[in-house]
Amino acid sequence: xxxxxxxxxxxxxxxxxxxxxxxxxxxxxxxxxxxxxxxxxxxxxxxxxxxxxxxxxxxxxxxxxxxxxxxxxxxxxxxxxxxxxxxxxxxxxxxxxxxxxxxxxxx
Amino acid sequence: xxxxxxxxxxxxxxxxxxxxxxxxxxxxxxxxxxxxxxxxxxxxxxxxxxxxxxxxxxxxxxxxxxxxxxxxxxxxxxxxxxxxxxxxxxxxxxxxxxxxxxxxxxx
Lengths: 107, 107
What we know:
2 copies of one chain form a homodimer.
Chain A: H1 20-27, H2 30-42, E1 45-46, H3 47-52, H4 59-71, E2 75-80, E3 83-88, H5 90-96, H6 100-105
Antiparallel strand pairs in A: 1-3, 2-3
């Protein structure tokens, strides 16, 4: 039954292993940058809430965007009950790439 | 005759028209990022000098990288006699995207 499904645990890279170019690429798409801005401004959001902010993006594309951000170390995507919560890894990113996120979010 | 060729004038975007995502994409390739770092550290260089720093990159790929950087407003590419000189648009970039280049070059 759907209600018995275990939430899927996704992998998150150690930021020490993430290259700057990977982060820059993840931020170079307007939809992904908008999502990062939203998470920075409003804090963690459920996947459904994130999705609601990009209603014109096809669901498969949206999932791809979330995955690209997660694999670049920009966001976590963790189960919370039956929902999933997406959060910006802001402090970790600041430690790995000082000033980068602030410079990007400032524009 | 080759010696009589007029140097080709390339177009350069007004930085006010350049989107942040375009700049981030241009910087998201390791070869392009290395070239930007080199121009930041050493000042303007001829195309041949730039090319010499990336000997393993095919010439057509290198030309594509230079074009991507120019169209993103990151570099100028201007004739100087029979040579061409590539320069980072550092002050202009700082005006348009404060802190971004320093944050990227710091890593």
